[in-house]
Amino acid sequence: MTRLAHTDPVTFCCQKRYWLLIRIEDISFSGTHSTGNIMSTIKKILPYLLAVFIAYVFLRYLPFKFASGSHLFQVLEDWSGLAWFEPHGRYLTGGAELLACILLFIPRLQSLGGLLSLALMTGAIFFHVFTPLGIDPYNDGGKLFTQAVGVWFSGLIIIFLRRDEYFPLLKSLLSDPKFSKEMM
Q1: CB within 8 A of 148, min separation 6: which ones?
Q2: How many CA atoms lie within 13 A of 90 on its CB side?
Q3: Residue pLDDT tens, the chain, 184 long
Q4: How far is it, in rounded angstroms, from Cα 58 to Cα 96?
Q5: CA 28, CA 37: separation in Å to the nearest integer?
Q6: DSSP assignment of 17-58
Q7: Could you give the count of Cα atoms lying within 13 Å of 44 in the half-sphere of its Cβ?
Q8: Among 53, 6, 33, which residue's Cα sits nearest to residue 158?
Q9: What is residue 141's DSSP assignment?
Q10: Which of 55, 116, 137, 138 could form a disulfide with 101 if both were Cys (CB 3.0 to 4.6 A apart)?
Q11: What is the pLDDT of residue 22?
Q12: CA 97 to CA 120: how far, in whole Å?
């Protein structure tokens, strides 16, 4: 491979009759791939791709969380015996899913959005597996359950990729500048 010029924004490389678009940042100037740069790029981009998937699933079902007469929540209310489960549980779940969608696209709070998505889908998977709701409540081949599992894994991957952000985020959320030692 020839040496790349510093001014080229992209370089095209033909390999096995396929054209690959390779950014200069991903290639070291000796002609070998830099694994650290590729992993760094994946670590930056993958959480946002997963966030788009999670937001798609949450926002697709959001109107059903705020419309009356939800079959899913009615089954859960009948099973649990909790009279408030149908209207209020549905609203609470819809609000939490909307909050997760918002958090997933705020860079400093994406890890919390992933954590909230994971928690919500843990509950959804639990209710699908261990209640009369079942894995296929709409007789559509378990599409809702499959998407819940996909969101669960996506949230888990976001949490793993953003694991270094939890302690600084927790520290910044718990510290209040009004009560710092410098002002006392």
Answers
A1: 57, 121, 124, 125, 128
A2: 21
A3: 444 444 433 333 333 333 333 343 444 444 445 677 888 888 889 999 999 999 999 999 999 898 887 888 889 999 999 888 888 999 999 999 999 999 999 988 999 999 999 999 999 999 999 999 999 988 889 999 999 999 999 999 999 999 888 878 777 778 866 545 554 4
A4: 10
A5: 9
A6: TEEEEEEGGGB-TTSSB-HHHHHHHHHHHHHHHHHHHHHHHH
A7: 6
A8: 53
A9: S
A10: 55
A11: 39
A12: 8
Q: Which helix (H) or strand (E) holds 15?
A: strand 10-15
- Side chain identity at residue 155, one-letter code: G
Question: Cβ of 67: how many Cβ atoms within 10 Å?
Answer: 10
The whole-angstrom separation of Cα 67 and Cα 133 is 19
